[in-house]
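Section: Multi-chain targets

For targets with more than one molecule, the full set of components is provided together so that the structure can be written out for the assembly as a whole rather than chain by chain. Components appear in the order listed by the source. The example entry contains two components.
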Amino acid sequence: MATELAAAPPPDTGDAGPSTSRKTTLLRRIWRNHLFVKVRKAVVVVFVVANATFFLGRAMPGDPIDVMAGRLTQGGMSMEEARAIAMHSLAYDPDAPLLRQWWEFFVGLLTFDFGGTINRPGVGVTEAIGAYLPWTLFSIGVGTLIAIGLGLTLGMVMAYRRNKVIDHVLSVLASVLGAIPNYLIAMVLVVCGGMYLGWFDPIDLRGTLSPGVEPGFTPTFVGDAFYHAALPILTYVLAIIGTWMLVMKASTTEVLGEDYVTVARARGLPDTRIATAYVGRNAVLPLVAQIAISFGTLVGGAIFVEQVLVYKGVGGLLLDAVHYRDYPLLQGLLVIITSCVVVANLISDLLYSRLDPRIQN
Amino acid sequence: MAVTTAPAHATGVWGTIWQGITRSTSGFIGLCLVLGVLLFSFVGPLFVDPANPTDVAKIWGAPNAEHWLGTNHEGKDTFTQLVLGGREPIWVGFVAALITVAIAVVLGAVAGYVRGRIDHFLLQVTDITMTVPFIVLMLVIASFYRTSSPLVVSFIIGLVTWPFLMRSIRAQVLSLKEREFIEAARLQDLGTARILFVEVLPNMAGYIFINFIIAITNAIYAVVGMYLLGLLPSTADNWGLMIQQAWDNNAFLLPQAAPFLIAPMVMIMLFQIGLVTMTRSLEQALNPRLRDR
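Its structure, encoded as tokens over all components, is:
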């Protein structure tokens, strides 16, 4: 991604400005622009996605009224009657001009107010998303952290023990794990651990919290949250760890061949210091950018896993929004999910330029 | 015409690919797995009776001599369903991968070779589409249309998954473009289309083939996932549908119902693992720098 940014035309910095104290302002300007360009790009992306969702939703067959009327007519009601009831009970006016709908949506977007949901009377979009999204981010976040931590360590071990038994075993394991779809991993966990081994009760593990547990920073709450998130987290760890192991192995192997590692060895530095400060650090560097990309993929994949494990995250909400044509909820969800990915991208960009000052220009 | 495409030997691209897959044990095992599943799903249906009647007396039957894998929640024979159920997901995966790769190769090659405004515009488009998780996009489109046609499903998958591949094809074209034989072709004024499709792209055939296989695994992941969420209507026999029905009926709580859930899962896993190990072996063969890793 960094190379693409370099290829893009320089941002409009205006004229060069007065040449007095040129060095400091120039440096500061470069640094600012590096950040500024990324933020500006991120805002454009979110804006385009939001608009695309708006028009995509409305261009598709069926609207909220149709969906509800369709369900009512199944109960033996006439179409006119059903439509009248649906129009009356849903906060959506299909006859409103598209331009006005868009204007309301646009103003809402600027003020971060996505309005009320259509199918959940009295519940705002932000409120609905706020109730589900944290669980998804929590389980994905913990899963990613564990997977990356473990994967990088194992990848280094594999590179150091190249062509030994442990390398072959871990390589096969990593390939196999990486090939299995994440929802099938979740099912295997439930079938093996829950049914055959009886280690846990998969039905009891469903949901995000046990009934009666109040949110708050209490040991009960945190423990219960982890108890219910255990299966999703384990699924994410198993699903992505293989890729990280293999990528880290390749990266470490490349670094091990570098001259500075040989020199460090010749200088008689302790092996642990070479492994962490010389090899590890340089091997991880090219992988930082991939963390953000994998985050986006994970959010998508989480929808399947949450559905399989009946974990009440944002996936179910999205499917509901699509199913009932709940336009405001759908728009809000896509804008917020995209923003999450964009923010993850930004963080990894900044982290990368902090770790490796070379890429800043 | 002295300096033309380098690896156009007698063995050709396919010979290289064949050698790449079979040169390592794991690659060969992968190939066997893939061929096995393909045989099972495409030749197997010739040997089973496609009429698989429901039988109320045999709901969730345990495996026996007549029903090798038992019967499902409707009393249908699980083994017959398993044999018949592989065609659709594999077919959808294949077509979707073709579409993805076709779009990615054409756009990536044009963007990388022609550069300029087209390149800039295409990069912007991929920037945006890569930010929206493609699964989310795919689920939204698929559930709006509720299509039952496998072809439409593969189009939807193909249309949302090309940006990643397009980026890497573009990068490859950018570096290939600087090579001497391309320069020679340009000096001979062979024309952009000819240089791209006759000189540049054949040099990336192995890479494109690897990505085609990866695209198949992604598409199968996507289509089975969509069945799992109940977004695609239940029509023909299908592994994804079997898993969804088994899961929704809580088959994992019932020991004699387990084959109906586990059998299609195993088939999909074997196929995916086979494809992935094939690509790994192939990658090492085509990129000698990786061999050591």
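The longest helix of chain B spans residues 258-286.
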